[in-house]
Write a sequence for this structure.
């Protein structure tokens, strides 16, 4: 029996495993780095071990040593990168600890997507044709010597060439053999793009997985991404717990998942589950895992097998009524599964709430999360609720630049898909998130979109559909700004040393109105002017709007006989206004602003804190508009900083490895016209 368990990951992952351990009476051990020493998962564990460097979560040796020092007798890898590291699994076993997962041999078998596809083809699982690319360009072969196994990639680097023998037809998908989560993946629509895509994918894969091997396969456009949850014990029993639909993706990363898929018939479901069971049995799998497929008009095809629990596992738990972490632990202790899995009931949908800014190309965001409240949550990290929250953060946490920007998963369960979607959209729309910009409005837009509700989705859904609509329209922003101004006046009155009962700006005779100006999230300037008279509120441009009450944190306005309550929260330099009309974030504009430092024309500021990975050009080089100049790494992803115009790189302030803050000037481009004068 497991007595004390260490979770080799952080955030929501660790908190999820801890919850089940607490219910089973298993002591828990957290690991943490200097970057997240105050994170919730550290406080919730019975014991915690400091690892130091922010990247230490990926160091098998430090994790095993932490388990030894803490007295743990078992290690759960969570569902991060180490969970699919066969070397780590073997190190845990060699240390005499119980490993919560499949054997190192099974992990290794699925660790290379190239080798996994070959194994699956032998097991009778449908696969797409694919070609592995060499680690580096090979010497040019003699005429006629290029083979299907090694296409002439070196020719592609020299410019457009005819497709190499054996290379699938365009479009292609370049993928990291050891990858996942959209990293090391590039779409190629013509031959001239292939070399650059391969180089970029290989570089990203090497940074993320320490393995730069890539391969290409046909890109199935308008296909659906479905996956089957499998669970296998050491006695030969294998469960297939239905399928999950994961087609709503951006940059090949899942955004919304659900179970079951609205596109899978009972017959196709049986075929998918049979294929998943064959895949698990082919490698002697034990534990929880996921077999992923692409589903198109021509059938379904094996993508990969994730030898771990998936981020989206809660939707399966809701529909099948099982605790997958508990089953993982029991299997590791030698328990045998029932002959048949439970039957599914209802529908579940999960969204991934990310800290990212739609106005800046969905760049990850960092900063203090001043407030995080999801209304209606009746379960956290456990079964039995209609609205479940699995979150790695709480109010007051600081979201840094070292880790994935996912804040939480919100999961809705209902008797029908429509019920689950409506409940989830409503909860997200009413969620209060202060301090960070997120993808919340996008999630609500998708959940309410007619195509999503009809089930007409595929992996290109977000690329094809202009689904993003801010919850608060222009009119909602204006009236929210009025509420913010009234709340500010109420706060001033409350703090006034004398005559605090008088309305702000009170005059015995009519004078100028009170004025306030704000900048909205979309760059718009909102100005309001109002008076508080004996007859009530008189606000310019707000005919028919009357004031019911105004307090520093809450303002009630009536418009057209309908009352609206606005909750106003003020933080340094920003206001958040929440109402049924939609959440609004406002930046007050000072009447007499202090002079601010301005960048010289052509400056390339860092859009976020991060580490300089590469500098693509040298000082004095001529660059063209859109050409990459600097590549930053932040929150585990690469971000290209490109030249805004054609010109000369006149200033270069960074070198690879340098840590930079948001707004730091990385380089300056002197535009061509100016340079020629």
């Amino acid at each position: 029996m497991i007595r004390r368990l260490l979770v080799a990951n952080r955030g929501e992952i660790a908190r999820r495993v801890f919850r089940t351990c607490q219910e089973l009476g298993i002591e828990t051990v957290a690991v943490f780095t200097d970057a997240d020493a105050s994170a919730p998962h550290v406080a919730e564990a019975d014991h915690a071990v400091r690892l130091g460097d922010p990247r230490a979560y990926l160091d098998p040796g430090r994790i095993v040593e932490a388990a030894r020092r803490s007295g743990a007798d078992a290690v759960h890898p969570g569902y991060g990168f180490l969970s699919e590291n066969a070397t780590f699994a073997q190190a845990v076993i060699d240390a005499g600890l119980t490993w919560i997962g499949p054997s190192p041999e099974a992990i290794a078998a699925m660790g290379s997507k190239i080798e996994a596809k070959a194994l699956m083809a032998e097991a009778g699982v449908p696969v797409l044709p694919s070609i592995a690319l060499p680690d580096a360009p090979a010497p040019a072969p003699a005429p006629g010597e290029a083979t299907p196994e090694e296409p002439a990639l070196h020719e592609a680097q020299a410019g457009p060439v005819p497709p190499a023998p054996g290379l699938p037809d365009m479009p292609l998908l370049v993928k990291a053999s050891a990858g996942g989560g959209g990293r090391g993946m590039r779409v190629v629509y013509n031959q001239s793009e292939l070399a650059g895509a391969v180089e970029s994918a290989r570089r990203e894969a090497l940074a993320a997985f320490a393995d730069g091997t890539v391969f290409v396969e046909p890109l199935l456009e308008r296909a659906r991404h479905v996956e089957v949850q499998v669970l296998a014990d050491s006695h030969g029993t294998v469960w297939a717990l239905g399928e999950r639909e994961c087609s709503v993706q951006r940059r090949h990363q899942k955004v919304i998942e659900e179970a079951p898929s609205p596109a899978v018939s009972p017959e196709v479901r049986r075929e998918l589950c049979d294929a998943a069971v064959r895949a698990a049995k082919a490698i002697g799998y034990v534990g929880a895992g996921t077999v992923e497929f692409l589903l198109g008009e021509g059938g379904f095809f094996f993508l990969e097998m994730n030898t771990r629990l998936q981020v989206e596992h809660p939707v399966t738990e809701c529909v099948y009524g099982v605790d997958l972490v508990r089953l993982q632990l029991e299997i590791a202790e030698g328990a045998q599964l029932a002959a048949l899995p439970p039957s599914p009931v209802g529908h579940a949908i999960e969204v991934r709430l990310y800290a990212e800014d739609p106005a800046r190309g969905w760049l990850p965001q960092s900063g203090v999360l001043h407030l995080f409240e999801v209304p209606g949550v009746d379960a956290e990290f456990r079964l039995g609720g209609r609205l479940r929250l699995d979150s790695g953060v709480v109010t007051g946490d600081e979201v840094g630049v070292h880790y994935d920007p996912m804040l939480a998963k919100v999961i809705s369960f209902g008797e029908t898909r429509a019920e689950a979607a409506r409940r989830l959209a409503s909860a997200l729309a009413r969620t209060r998130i202060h301090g960070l910009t997120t993808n919340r409005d996008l999630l609500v837009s998708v959940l309410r979109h007619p195509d999503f509700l009809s089930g007409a989705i595929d992996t290109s859904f977000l690329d094809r559909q202009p689904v993003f609509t801010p919850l608060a329209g222009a009119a909602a922003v204006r009236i929210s700004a009025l509420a913010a101004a009234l709340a500010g006046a109420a706060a001033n009155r409350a703090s006034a040393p004398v005559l605090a009962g008088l309305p702000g700006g009170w005059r015995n005779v009519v004078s100028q109105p009170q004025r306030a100006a704000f900048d909205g999230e979309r760059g718009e300037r909102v100005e309001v002017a109002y008076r508080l008279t004996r007859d009530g509120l008189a606000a310019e441009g707000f005919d028919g709007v009357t004031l019911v009450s105004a307090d520093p944190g809450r303002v009630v306005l009536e418009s057209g006989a309908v009352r609206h309550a606005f909750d106003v929260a003020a933080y340094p330099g920003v206001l958040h206004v929440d109402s049924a009309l939609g959440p609004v974030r406002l930046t007050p504009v000072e009447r007499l602003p202090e002079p601010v430092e301005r960048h010289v024309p052509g400056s390339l500021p860092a859009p976020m804190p991060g580490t300089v990975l590469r500098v693509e050009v040298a000082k004095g080089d001529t660059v063209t508009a859109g050409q990459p100049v600097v590549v930053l790494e932040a929150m585990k992803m690469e971000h290209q900083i490109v030249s805004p115009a054609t010109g000369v790189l006149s200033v270069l302030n960074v070198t690879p490895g340098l840590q930079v803050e948001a707004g730091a000037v990385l380089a300056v481009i002197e535009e061509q016209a100016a340079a020629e004068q």
